[in-house]
Amino acid sequence: MTRGKRRARGVGAVVEAVVDRGRFSDRLPALAAELECSEAEARRSVRECLAELVAVPSNTFREFAGRISKTMSSLGYESPVTCDPQQLERLRALMDEHPVALLWTHKSHVDGAAVIATLHENGFPMLHSFGGANMAFAGVGYSGRRSGIIFIRRSFSDDPAYKFALRQYLGYLMEKRSPFSWSFEGTRSRIGKLMPPRLGLLKYLVEAAEATGTEGLRLVPVAVSYDLISDVDDYTQEESGSVKKAENLGWFLSYLQRLRKPMGRIYMNFGAPVAVDAGKALDTESNELYKLAFRVAVNANRVTPITLPAVVSLVLLGALPRALTAVELSDRVMDVVNWARARNIPLTSSYDDADRERLDEVMEMMIRRNLLTRFDQGPETVYGIGEKEHSVAGYYRNTVIHFFVNKAIAELALMRVAPSRSSDKKALFFSEARWLRNLFKHEFYFPESHEFTEELQTELEQMDPDWEAAVSAGENSTTSLLSRATPLVTPATLLDFLDAYLIMARVLEMAARNEQPTDADWVALALKYGRQAYLQRTVTSDASIGRQVLRNAYRWFEGEGLAPPEPDRLDALHRARKRIENTLRRAELLASFSAIGRWELPVS
Three-state SS for 165? Predict the structure, then answer.
């Protein structure tokens, strides 16, 4: 700590409590040896680092933070946040028994405020969160430390004393059952799906648990969901290639103003805790830390509820380019809902006649925000996705897309099998499903291969207990099985992603035929080609033209050794493009089946 910097009241007492712990003294000689100094000098260095790190939560600031968070999370949303009281009580009991870190999904600037407000209203202790040390200036540092923020240096890999202090302090907090809280994605999701987990803060906490002998650490996934999100318009513009707006004071005031528009409800759900074995988690050979974060993400997905805007967006995206009558829309929404209920997937609403008023309210909000269009001047009222709102609808669809991916893969694999003359159609089905799983490995959190196979088997059995016989009987029997497997979800879930991967494949092939620039920005090229393809209507929706999905597509081709394109790999690139193209055609046939009334399946 620099001389003259004012310490917060109470910091000294916490520093003394940390350095007086047995684990601190046991580990100090090793630190002194690493620093090549005496134990007294090492202790003094650690004390200075602790004085910089320590947060000193106060009841006054706890109340203030709770009120501010509640105000922010209720500007445009109904209050309080919708949360199951039983889940809260289970969390309270868990916090009494174990050190806990709440890892929440990040879709909006409101997420953190919603978590703080909900736990504060229900009498939970103040959460400890993390911030960059560069933000600990003047009033921000003063109020932040009293609100539970631990300010951490951006880089400290070359400072053993600081690393030692951080581990000891976090271990002390875990011993005191002080809960932690942060977004495990690190940044807001711009496309609705969970982003890859960031391991930095998790690694600090696990290292602290190992260094201080702390046992029983639990990671609790927190799924924060919304009916509507004011940030989504910004996200879709950024994904289409626009420059991100600077987040300054003026931007923040404008953001608060946008929050005042009615956006429905916020939903908070707590997933199954993930137990941490600190020693095992730090084994870099087996990548256990990432597996821990992966389990947190999977458990968060499992308790993310299907919201009304998400299911409406899913249905209408699946119907593109058609609009649907009110009856068609209602029937298709109920098909999705009944499918979800049969699999115990959480829903935010009852979706029955008594809930029709709620559906009407949400759709009115979507219409006011231009997400939906309504035409009521003909014989029947029809609803559709706004002409320039496909990506916005795709965002809401993506918040629940993980529930439908396995079914979509099963549908596509059945489409592959139906016209095939293979003697072992079951083996062909699972081979195709595994290829699709590999194709979309950068998009979704898939379980281990054997679990994935078991989940597909369960989905097929729910379609038809005699699915194997139906598949083996030939094309007519297989397509009959598909026609009964309502709702068909492939067009609404995977069609946009297949379009994006095909766009990237064509960009790679075209670049390979010309002089290839050494520093080509493949995503930028694909964005331009994708925009052209949409204007030519060779892709169904502009939801497929986004930075993240095109970046993931490039990563897949790169992982397959096909990007950047090399002359000796052009045949393999062509085969991959052709296979994606055929898969896309099957998805389009699924979309058009109800309209054309017949099947014409490509053989490959």
Answer: helix
Cα separation, 293 vs 270, whole angstroms: 15
Residues 6+ apart with CB under 8 A from 145: 8, 54, 55, 56, 136, 151
What are the extents of the domains in the chain? 59-128+178-302, 308-402, 404-492, 494-596
Closest by CA to 165, choosing from 259, 307, 2, 47, is: 47
Among the listed residues 236, 531, 242, the one whose alpha carbon sits nearest the alpha carbon of residue 392: 236
Residue where the block lists tokens 């879930």: 493
Q: What is the DSSP letter of 156?
A: -
- Sequence-distant (6+) residues with CB within 8 A of 44 are none
CATH class name, domain 308-402 = mainly alpha
Cα 242 from Cα 234, distance rounded (Å): 9
Task: Give the Cα separation of 589 and 544 in Å (integer).
Answer: 18
- Extended beta strands in 85-189, E state: 100-104, 129-132, 149-152, 180-183
Question: Where does residue 14 rank: exposed (0-12), middle (13-18), buried (19+ CB within 10 A)?
Answer: buried
Q: Is the pLDDT of residue 141 over 90?
A: no
C-beta separation of 586 from 601 below 8 A: yes
The C-alpha angle 465, 471, 476, rounded to 5 degrees, equals: 115
Q: What is the pLDDT of residue 125?
A: 93
Q: Is residue 418 over pLDDT 90?
A: yes
* The pLDDT of residue 598 is above 50: no
Q: How far apart are CA 65 and CA 112, in angstroms?
A: 11
β pairing state of 100-104 and 218-226: parallel
Q: What does DSSP assign to residue 354?
A: G
Q: Would the pTM count as exceeding 0.85?
A: yes
Amino acid at site 179: P
Token pair 């990237």 is found at: 504
Length of the chain: 604
Q: Which residues pair with 268 in a beta bridge?
A: 83, 224
* pLDDT, mean of residues 244-258: 77
Q: Are strands 218-226 and 266-270 parallel, antiparallel or unpaired?
A: antiparallel
Whether pLDDT at 518 is above 60:
no
How far is C-alpha 330 from the geometric centre of its chain's CA atoms? 28
Give how far the C-alpha of residue 13 lies from the chain's centroid of Cα atoms, to the nearest Å: 40
Q: CA torsion 82→83→85→91, rounded to 10°?
A: -160
Q: Are 181 and 129 in contact (CB under 8 A)?
A: yes
In DSSP terms, which residues pair with 180 in a beta bridge?
101, 128
How far is residue 23's CA from residue 29's CA, in Å, rounded to a whole number?
A: 11
Q: Assign 3-state DSSP to the chain and report helix, strand, coil percentages, each to 5.
A: 60, 10, 35
Strand partners, 274: 219
Residues in Cβ contact with 53 at an 8 Å cutoff, skipping those fewer than 6 apart: 150, 151, 152, 165, 166, 169
* Alpha-carbon span 353 to 358, nearest angstrom: 10
Q: What is the pLDDT of residue 23?
A: 85
Q: Locate the DSSP E strands across 64-147.
A: 82-83, 100-104, 129-132
Which residue pairs from 344-353 have beta carbons closer than 8 angstroms and sit at least 24 positions apart in sequence? 345/306, 345/403, 346/269, 346/303, 346/304, 346/305, 346/306, 347/305, 347/306, 348/82, 348/225, 348/227, 348/265, 348/267, 348/305, 348/306, 348/307, 348/308, 349/308
Chain mean position to CA 131: 21
Establish how many alpha carbons lie within 13 A of residue 121's alpha carbon, considering only the half-sphere containing its beta carbon: 19
